[in-house]
Specification:
The chain is an alpha+beta fold. The chain folds into 3 domains: 70 residues, Structural Genomics Hypothetical 15.5 Kd Protein In mrcA-pckA Intergenic Region, Chain A, CATH 3.10.290.10; 96 residues, Pseudouridine synthase, CATH 3.30.2350.10; 161 residues, Pseudouridine synthase (2-Layer Sandwich), CATH 3.30.2350.10. It is 23% helix and 26% strand. It has 8 helices and 16 strands. A hairpin with a 7-residue loop joins strand 11 and strand 12. The longest helix is centred in the middle third of the chain and has 13 residues. It is globular. 33% of the residues are buried. The mean pLDDT is 90.
Protein backbone atom coordinates (compact mmCIF):
# COMPACT_ATOMS: atom_id res chain seq x y z
CA UNK A 1 0.00 0.00 0.00
CA UNK A 2 1.09 3.59 -0.65
CA UNK A 3 -0.24 4.88 2.67
CA UNK A 4 0.09 3.48 6.18
CA UNK A 5 -1.50 5.12 9.22
CA UNK A 6 -0.28 4.37 12.71
CA UNK A 7 -2.50 4.26 15.78
CA UNK A 8 -1.33 7.72 16.83
CA UNK A 9 -2.31 9.26 13.49
CA UNK A 10 1.08 9.34 11.76
CA UNK A 11 0.85 8.86 8.00
CA UNK A 12 3.66 7.19 6.04
CA UNK A 13 3.16 7.84 2.33
CA UNK A 14 5.24 6.39 -0.48
CA UNK A 15 4.60 8.25 -3.73
CA UNK A 16 3.70 5.82 -6.55
CA UNK A 17 5.86 6.13 -9.65
CA UNK A 18 2.78 6.72 -11.82
CA UNK A 19 2.18 10.01 -9.99
CA UNK A 20 5.47 11.46 -11.18
CA UNK A 21 5.11 15.10 -12.30
CA UNK A 22 2.17 16.02 -10.03
CA UNK A 23 2.16 18.71 -7.32
CA UNK A 24 2.90 17.36 -3.86
CA UNK A 25 -0.19 18.80 -2.15
CA UNK A 26 -2.48 17.42 -4.87
CA UNK A 27 -0.74 14.04 -4.74
CA UNK A 28 -1.05 13.76 -0.97
CA UNK A 29 -4.72 14.71 -1.12
CA UNK A 30 -5.37 12.00 -3.72
CA UNK A 31 -3.56 9.40 -1.63
CA UNK A 32 -5.18 10.55 1.63
CA UNK A 33 -8.83 11.23 0.72
CA UNK A 34 -9.70 11.84 4.39
CA UNK A 35 -7.57 15.00 4.27
CA UNK A 36 -8.38 17.99 2.07
CA UNK A 37 -5.75 19.73 0.00
CA UNK A 38 -6.08 22.87 2.13
CA UNK A 39 -5.68 20.77 5.30
CA UNK A 40 -2.49 19.26 3.90
CA UNK A 41 -1.15 22.73 3.06
CA UNK A 42 -1.92 23.75 6.62
CA UNK A 43 -0.02 20.76 7.97
CA UNK A 44 2.96 21.79 5.86
CA UNK A 45 2.82 25.31 7.28
CA UNK A 46 2.69 23.85 10.78
CA UNK A 47 5.79 21.70 10.02
CA UNK A 48 3.84 18.47 10.30
CA UNK A 49 4.96 17.05 6.93
CA UNK A 50 8.43 15.49 6.70
CA UNK A 51 10.76 13.90 4.21
CA UNK A 52 13.22 11.93 6.28
CA UNK A 53 13.61 13.92 9.49
CA UNK A 54 13.30 17.32 7.84
CA UNK A 55 10.05 19.36 7.72
CA UNK A 56 8.90 19.89 4.14
CA UNK A 57 6.63 22.85 3.31
CA UNK A 58 6.81 23.19 -0.49
CA UNK A 59 3.24 22.39 -1.55
CA UNK A 60 4.10 23.00 -5.22
CA UNK A 61 6.98 20.51 -5.23
CA UNK A 62 6.82 18.23 -8.29
CA UNK A 63 6.98 14.64 -7.12
CA UNK A 64 9.45 12.26 -8.73
CA UNK A 65 7.78 9.05 -7.63
CA UNK A 66 9.28 6.74 -5.03
CA UNK A 67 9.74 9.42 -2.31
CA UNK A 68 8.45 8.69 1.17
CA UNK A 69 6.76 11.43 3.20
CA UNK A 70 5.49 11.38 6.75
CA UNK A 71 2.59 13.46 8.06
CA UNK A 72 1.71 13.97 11.68
CA UNK A 73 -1.99 14.85 11.89
CA UNK A 74 -2.95 16.36 15.27
CA UNK A 75 -6.26 15.17 16.70
CA UNK A 76 -9.20 17.41 15.82
CA UNK A 77 -9.91 20.25 18.20
CA UNK A 78 -13.46 20.68 19.45
CA UNK A 79 -14.28 24.22 18.37
CA UNK A 80 -17.79 24.19 19.84
CA UNK A 81 -18.11 27.48 21.78
CA UNK A 82 -17.87 27.11 25.55
CA UNK A 83 -19.70 29.20 28.16
CA UNK A 84 -17.62 32.03 29.59
CA UNK A 85 -18.48 34.38 32.43
CA UNK A 86 -18.15 37.61 30.44
CA UNK A 87 -20.16 40.61 31.72
CA UNK A 88 -23.03 41.69 29.49
CA UNK A 89 -24.83 45.03 29.37
CA UNK A 90 -28.40 43.76 29.02
CA UNK A 91 -30.92 46.39 27.97
CA UNK A 92 -33.90 44.03 27.85
CA UNK A 93 -34.54 40.34 28.46
CA UNK A 94 -37.53 38.03 28.62
CA UNK A 95 -38.12 34.32 27.92
CA UNK A 96 -37.85 34.87 24.16
CA UNK A 97 -35.06 37.34 23.44
CA UNK A 98 -32.40 39.69 24.71
CA UNK A 99 -31.26 43.14 23.64
CA UNK A 100 -27.63 43.81 24.52
CA UNK A 101 -25.56 46.99 24.42
CA UNK A 102 -22.32 45.62 22.94
CA UNK A 103 -19.06 47.42 23.71
CA UNK A 104 -16.51 48.07 20.97
CA UNK A 105 -13.93 45.29 20.82
CA UNK A 106 -16.32 42.43 21.61
CA UNK A 107 -16.57 39.93 18.73
CA UNK A 108 -20.08 38.59 18.17
CA UNK A 109 -19.32 34.93 17.42
CA UNK A 110 -16.30 32.61 17.23
CA UNK A 111 -14.30 32.54 14.02
CA UNK A 112 -10.79 32.16 12.71
CA UNK A 113 -8.39 33.28 15.41
CA UNK A 114 -11.17 34.08 17.91
CA UNK A 115 -12.54 30.91 19.51
CA UNK A 116 -13.07 32.45 22.94
CA UNK A 117 -14.05 35.75 24.51
CA UNK A 118 -16.98 36.38 22.15
CA UNK A 119 -20.57 37.46 22.71
CA UNK A 120 -21.67 33.88 21.98
CA UNK A 121 -19.42 32.55 24.75
CA UNK A 122 -20.97 35.09 27.13
CA UNK A 123 -24.50 34.20 26.03
CA UNK A 124 -23.95 30.48 26.56
CA UNK A 125 -22.99 31.24 30.16
CA UNK A 126 -25.82 33.69 30.76
CA UNK A 127 -28.63 31.77 29.04
CA UNK A 128 -27.51 28.25 29.94
CA UNK A 129 -29.64 25.94 27.75
CA UNK A 130 -32.17 28.57 26.65
CA UNK A 131 -30.68 29.87 23.42
CA UNK A 132 -31.97 29.36 19.88
CA UNK A 133 -29.98 26.79 17.93
CA UNK A 134 -31.06 27.99 14.49
CA UNK A 135 -27.92 30.06 14.06
CA UNK A 136 -25.83 26.88 14.21
CA UNK A 137 -23.33 25.57 16.72
CA UNK A 138 -21.05 28.60 16.46
CA UNK A 139 -23.77 31.25 16.25
CA UNK A 140 -26.59 30.20 18.57
CA UNK A 141 -29.24 32.89 18.90
CA UNK A 142 -27.48 35.36 16.60
CA UNK A 143 -30.00 37.10 14.32
CA UNK A 144 -27.76 39.91 13.04
CA UNK A 145 -24.17 40.99 13.62
CA UNK A 146 -22.19 44.05 14.56
CA UNK A 147 -18.55 44.44 13.54
CA UNK A 148 -16.12 43.82 16.40
CA UNK A 149 -15.32 47.53 16.78
CA UNK A 150 -18.86 48.82 16.27
CA UNK A 151 -20.59 49.48 19.57
CA UNK A 152 -24.28 49.50 20.42
CA UNK A 153 -27.46 47.46 20.29
CA UNK A 154 -27.73 43.88 19.12
CA UNK A 155 -30.61 41.45 19.66
CA UNK A 156 -30.40 37.73 20.40
CA UNK A 157 -33.08 35.05 20.09
CA UNK A 158 -33.51 32.69 23.01
CA UNK A 159 -36.03 30.44 21.25
CA UNK A 160 -36.39 29.11 17.72
CA UNK A 161 -39.80 30.81 17.42
CA UNK A 162 -38.23 34.17 18.23
CA UNK A 163 -35.30 33.52 15.88
CA UNK A 164 -37.59 32.75 12.95
CA UNK A 165 -39.79 35.80 13.57
CA UNK A 166 -36.90 38.23 13.99
CA UNK A 167 -35.11 36.84 10.94
CA UNK A 168 -38.30 37.27 8.90
CA UNK A 169 -38.59 40.88 10.07
CA UNK A 170 -34.98 41.44 9.10
CA UNK A 171 -35.59 40.00 5.63
CA UNK A 172 -38.80 42.02 5.20
CA UNK A 173 -37.00 45.20 6.31
CA UNK A 174 -39.54 45.87 9.05
CA UNK A 175 -36.86 45.49 11.71
CA UNK A 176 -35.31 48.95 12.02
CA UNK A 177 -31.66 49.71 12.87
CA UNK A 178 -30.29 53.20 13.38
CA UNK A 179 -26.60 54.06 13.70
CA UNK A 180 -24.62 57.18 14.50
CA UNK A 181 -21.31 57.79 12.74
CA UNK A 182 -18.75 60.56 12.98
CA UNK A 183 -17.40 61.28 9.50
CA UNK A 184 -14.82 63.54 7.90
CA UNK A 185 -16.62 66.20 5.90
CA UNK A 186 -20.27 67.21 5.89
CA UNK A 187 -22.26 65.08 3.43
CA UNK A 188 -23.99 66.81 0.55
CA UNK A 189 -26.93 66.70 0.35
CA UNK A 190 -27.55 66.72 4.08
CA UNK A 191 -29.90 63.75 3.74
CA UNK A 192 -30.15 61.06 1.11
CA UNK A 193 -29.97 57.40 0.17
CA UNK A 194 -26.97 55.40 -0.98
CA UNK A 195 -28.19 52.52 -3.15
CA UNK A 196 -25.12 50.68 -4.41
CA UNK A 197 -24.48 46.91 -4.39
CA UNK A 198 -21.67 45.51 -2.26
CA UNK A 199 -19.46 42.47 -2.50
CA UNK A 200 -16.00 41.19 -1.67
CA UNK A 201 -13.22 43.52 -2.76
CA UNK A 202 -11.52 41.97 -5.82
CA UNK A 203 -8.01 42.50 -4.43
CA UNK A 204 -8.38 42.55 -0.65
CA UNK A 205 -10.49 39.83 0.97
CA UNK A 206 -10.71 41.75 4.24
CA UNK A 207 -12.60 44.56 2.55
CA UNK A 208 -15.97 45.03 0.90
CA UNK A 209 -16.48 47.25 -2.12
CA UNK A 210 -19.15 48.77 -4.33
CA UNK A 211 -19.42 46.47 -7.34
CA UNK A 212 -20.78 47.22 -10.78
CA UNK A 213 -21.58 43.56 -11.36
CA UNK A 214 -22.29 40.65 -9.06
CA UNK A 215 -22.79 42.61 -5.85
CA UNK A 216 -25.67 42.20 -3.41
CA UNK A 217 -28.26 44.93 -2.99
CA UNK A 218 -27.23 47.42 -0.31
CA UNK A 219 -29.26 50.49 0.69
CA UNK A 220 -28.36 53.02 3.38
CA UNK A 221 -30.41 56.09 4.28
CA UNK A 222 -28.54 58.91 5.99
CA UNK A 223 -29.02 62.40 7.37
CA UNK A 224 -26.66 64.88 8.99
CA UNK A 225 -27.50 65.50 12.64
CA UNK A 226 -24.82 68.11 13.28
CA UNK A 227 -21.88 69.59 11.39
CA UNK A 228 -18.66 70.85 12.94
CA UNK A 229 -16.87 73.71 11.17
CA UNK A 230 -17.70 72.26 7.75
CA UNK A 231 -15.09 69.55 8.31
CA UNK A 232 -16.79 66.89 10.46
CA UNK A 233 -20.34 65.65 10.92
CA UNK A 234 -22.40 63.44 13.15
CA UNK A 235 -24.49 61.37 10.73
CA UNK A 236 -27.51 59.17 11.35
CA UNK A 237 -27.59 56.07 9.14
CA UNK A 238 -30.49 53.67 8.75
CA UNK A 239 -29.99 50.26 7.21
CA UNK A 240 -32.52 48.96 4.71
CA UNK A 241 -30.23 46.00 4.06
CA UNK A 242 -27.54 44.52 6.26
CA UNK A 243 -24.38 43.83 4.31
CA UNK A 244 -20.94 43.44 5.83
CA UNK A 245 -19.36 46.87 6.52
CA UNK A 246 -22.29 48.49 4.69
CA UNK A 247 -22.28 51.92 6.36
CA UNK A 248 -18.51 52.18 6.29
CA UNK A 249 -18.28 51.36 2.58
CA UNK A 250 -21.24 53.55 1.57
CA UNK A 251 -19.83 56.52 3.45
CA UNK A 252 -16.44 55.93 1.82
CA UNK A 253 -18.15 55.76 -1.58
CA UNK A 254 -19.64 59.21 -1.01
CA UNK A 255 -16.24 60.53 0.09
CA UNK A 256 -17.07 60.96 3.79
CA UNK A 257 -14.86 58.55 5.69
CA UNK A 258 -15.90 57.23 9.11
CA UNK A 259 -13.45 58.59 11.65
CA UNK A 260 -10.97 56.01 12.95
CA UNK A 261 -11.92 53.35 10.41
CA UNK A 262 -8.86 51.08 9.97
CA UNK A 263 -10.08 49.58 6.68
CA UNK A 264 -11.94 52.35 4.88
CA UNK A 265 -10.79 55.48 6.67
CA UNK A 266 -8.78 58.38 5.24
CA UNK A 267 -5.04 58.78 4.96
CA UNK A 268 -3.44 60.41 8.00
CA UNK A 269 -2.63 63.55 5.98
CA UNK A 270 -6.30 63.97 5.06
CA UNK A 271 -7.28 63.44 8.69
CA UNK A 272 -5.00 66.26 9.89
CA UNK A 273 -5.97 68.50 6.98
CA UNK A 274 -9.59 68.49 8.16
CA UNK A 275 -8.59 69.74 11.60
CA UNK A 276 -6.39 72.44 10.09
CA UNK A 277 -9.11 73.71 7.76
CA UNK A 278 -11.61 73.61 10.62
CA UNK A 279 -9.43 75.89 12.74
CA UNK A 280 -8.68 73.26 15.38
CA UNK A 281 -5.41 73.16 17.31
CA UNK A 282 -3.16 70.33 16.16
CA UNK A 283 -3.20 68.97 19.72
CA UNK A 284 -6.92 68.25 19.34
CA UNK A 285 -6.19 66.15 16.27
CA UNK A 286 -3.43 64.29 18.10
CA UNK A 287 -5.66 63.66 21.10
CA UNK A 288 -8.46 62.25 18.95
CA UNK A 289 -6.04 60.14 16.93
CA UNK A 290 -4.55 58.65 20.09
CA UNK A 291 -7.88 57.95 21.78
CA UNK A 292 -9.98 56.71 18.84
CA UNK A 293 -8.80 53.18 18.22
CA UNK A 294 -11.79 52.01 16.19
CA UNK A 295 -14.33 53.24 13.68
CA UNK A 296 -16.65 55.88 15.16
CA UNK A 297 -19.83 53.90 14.55
CA UNK A 298 -22.51 53.17 17.16
CA UNK A 299 -25.78 51.22 16.86
CA UNK A 300 -28.00 53.70 18.63
CA UNK A 301 -31.53 52.37 18.08
CA UNK A 302 -33.26 49.05 17.42
CA UNK A 303 -36.98 48.58 16.66
CA UNK A 304 -38.94 45.40 16.00
CA UNK A 305 -42.18 43.56 16.69
CA UNK A 306 -41.98 41.18 19.63
CA UNK A 307 -42.21 37.66 18.15
CA UNK A 308 -44.76 36.47 20.74
CA UNK A 309 -46.62 39.46 22.20
CA UNK A 310 -46.64 41.35 18.86
CA UNK A 311 -45.79 44.50 20.78
CA UNK A 312 -43.80 47.13 18.89
CA UNK A 313 -40.53 47.56 20.78
CA UNK A 314 -37.88 50.27 20.46
CA UNK A 315 -34.62 50.42 22.37
CA UNK A 316 -31.96 53.13 22.39
CA UNK A 317 -28.35 53.26 23.50
CA UNK A 318 -26.52 56.37 24.71
CA UNK A 319 -23.55 57.42 22.62
CA UNK A 320 -20.43 55.39 23.36
CA UNK A 321 -18.12 57.40 25.60
CA UNK A 322 -15.16 57.44 23.20
CA UNK A 323 -17.37 58.88 20.47
CA UNK A 324 -18.96 61.38 22.85
CA UNK A 325 -15.49 62.58 23.86
CA UNK A 326 -14.73 63.28 20.19
CA UNK A 327 -17.99 65.19 19.70
CA UNK A 328 -17.22 67.27 22.79
CA UNK A 329 -13.80 68.18 21.39
CA UNK A 330 -15.23 69.05 17.97
CA UNK A 331 -17.90 71.27 19.56
CA UNK A 332 -15.38 73.43 21.44
CA UNK A 333 -14.83 75.76 18.48
Amino acid sequence: MSVEISEDGEYTIKIPTEMKGKRLDKTLALLCPDLSRSRIKGLMTEECVFIGDMPFDDASYTVLGGETFKMIVPPPVDDTPRPENIPLSIVYEDDHLLVIDKPAGLIVHPGAGHQTGTLVNALLHHCKDSLSGIGGVKRPGIVHRLDMDTSGLIMVAKTDVAHISLSQQLAARTLKRKYHAIVLGVPVPLAGVVDKPLGRHPKNRLRQAVLREGGREAITSYKVIEGFNDEFALVECRLQTGRTHQIRVHMQEKGYFVLGDPLYGPQRTAFYACFKRGGYDVEVAKKIEENMKRQALHAVELSFIHPVTQEEMTFTSPMAQDMQDILDELAKI
